[in-house]
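Final report, Chapter 2: Outcomes

The project's central promise was a pipeline that accepts a single protein chain and returns its three-dimensional structure in a standardized token representation, suitable for archiving and comparison. That pipeline is now operational. To close this chapter, we reproduce one record exactly as it appears in the project archive, with the input sequence first and the structure output second.
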Amino acid sequence: MLSARPSVRCSDMDDHGEMKADALTVAAAAIETTVTEKEQSKHIKQFFDSKYGPTWHVIVGCDFKAHVTHEAKTFFFFYIGKTAICLYKAG
């Protein structure tokens, strides 16, 4: 696992829920095992679409801000090290 601690910026997911824990675990694994941000976002999206049903959206980058419309209890914006991840369900 990565040594960088996750830093939550904004979330409406349950703090102690399985979905939030999955997001942190899967994102850390994606960062560790893939090279590009595109591959990382694809890895996270495929996991969430498979486990929690479609349609999940994932933005991965170094530094960005996002304003999105999402379903209740499905938004999570966080950093792992210098990598920002915005994960949400819409559609």
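Archive annotation: The CA atoms of residues 12 and 72 lie 7 Å apart.
This record, like all others produced under the grant, will remain available to the consortium after the project formally closes.
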